[in-house]
Amino acid sequence: MENMPGMEGMVPPPPSSPADHQPQHTMTTSSHMIMTHMTFFWGKNAEILFSGWPGTRTGMYVLALIFVFVLSVIVEWLTHCRRTGGVEGPDSFSGGLIRTVVHGIRIGLGYLVMLAVMSFNVGVLIVAVAGHAVGFFLFGSRVFKKSGDSDKGFGPTGAGC
């Protein structure tokens, strides 16, 4: 770096040590240490979406995994929703408004799934991917569609959202 223009006076980073591979720590205003994982880990002691949730109890962790799974399935359901259910039809103002609201809800729920995965917990990643896969199988694949239901809706029953 000594011969590079504009790099005068820059100090090279210190060599890495085993401590560099530990989870990052941040201080809160009440001087308590909070562990923030920066790599994927396997364990039930994670914070998913909310501070302190699901805690350290196994049952709450399983409930959090079920919640992320169901959330992922709902995102896929809303992704493949084709009908507005409005009497006026999808080209009317009310139909467009309903589709816009459904789109906003889908995007918001998708970001919640993304934030859950950003907990870097492998279990959360697995159930999020599994939820999207099951949701796509149920609502996006052609397995449950009848031959005449190509534009009439989605899912096993062909019903609109």
TrEMBL record:
The keyword Cytoplasm does not apply. Residues 1-27 are annotated as: Disordered. It is a multi-pass membrane protein. Signal peptide: none annotated. It holds the Pfam family Ctr. InterPro entries: Cop_transporter (IPR007274). GO terms for molecular function: copper ion transmembrane transporter activity. The keyword Magnesium does not apply. Its main location: membrane. Keywords: Copper, Copper transport, Ion transport, Membrane, Transmembrane, Transmembrane helix, Transport. PANTHER family: COPPER TRANSPORT PROTEIN (PTHR12483:SF129), SOLUTE CARRIER FAMILY 31 COPPER TRANSPORTERS (PTHR12483). This is Copper transport protein. It comes from Sesamum alatum.
